[in-house]
Amino acid sequence: MARTLLWGSLVLAPIAVVADDGLHLGATPLFVLSAAALVPLAWLIGEATGHAAEHTGPGVGGFLNASFGNAPELIIAVLAVADGLPVVVRGTITGSVVSNLLLVLGAAMIAGGRGPVDARSLRWQVAALGGAIVLLLAPSVPGWHGSPNRHALVVVTIPMSLVLLAAYLWITFANLRIHRDAERKAPHSDAWSLQRSLAVLACATVATAFVSEVLVHSLRDFGETVGLSEFFIAIVIVAIVGNAAEHGGAILIARRGNTQLATEIAITSAMQVAVFVAPAIALISLALSHRLTLAFRPIEIGTLALATVLAWLVTRDGVSKRWEGWLLAAAYGGAVVAYYFS
Hints:
Layout: H1 2-8, H2 12-23, H3 27-56, H4 58-82, H5 86-112, E1 115-116, H6 119-143, H7 151-180, H8 194-226, H9 230-242, H10 244-255, H11 259-284, H12 298-315, E2 319-320, H13 322-341
Antiparallel strand pairs: 1-2
Helix pairs in contact: 2-3, 2-8, 3-4, 3-8, 3-10, 4-5, 4-8, 4-10, 4-11, 5-9, 5-10, 5-11, 5-12, 5-13, 6-7, 6-11, 6-12, 7-11, 8-9, 10-11, 12-13
């Protein structure tokens, strides 16, 4: 019954896009409609990733889910840069990393309970996150005094972005080699073919991009209606909803007992945002009318560092535990309170 409802509710995606273009709904109903439309898309991406992982193994499956899940976020961020919204873009980047490491990883551990975690694979990705945070200090610390969008920080951002992209390519290839040599079980008889899984992932990602764009365009008016700041909207609401597909997918996969794939999705997604999406957006912005500096606020750097340390602590022993999931979820709640008062 639940699967039938999810399949049927996929129709909400085109309805949300049409409503944005032709029905001229208010910001609040449009926000609710587009958010609801992301739920079945989250399920579909999780479903397709699970089937793809039957052929590729959990490591490559987590990489595929994170890659497809982060594509809409990259598109949304580029559009926001073009509209001259650097605070929204940086807040979304921070919120995406923190929510993946604390909220999604925590929820996956709670849903999956005790289970295996590939500590060897995740170690590389957590290390990459730590290195990215250290590099982000170069444009961020000067940005704490004066405008964080000034040209001098654009100059600092460019070489730092190139270093991050080079590190991302090296870590990705190294991580995929680890999983290429790992032993994989034969796919179940009812598993989709790899080609079908990838096709569904691609289609669901495109749909998610369109729906996410509708949601983001309605967020500013929605925030004014409910009385929330632009920074809080970006770092909490946009980050969570923009990543709803991979968030939901990781939790659903964990509930089915695949804690290894679920944790791969959460941490791989966070690593991709910090080490690939953020520098990619900064470099793409050079061709736009507005430039993006990667100068983050102290509260953003602090929560990024805290989330990375906690993710390392709960995965280093190679075992997922439910109480650790509750710890991560509580830490995310504390971060949200800090964002609100900042």
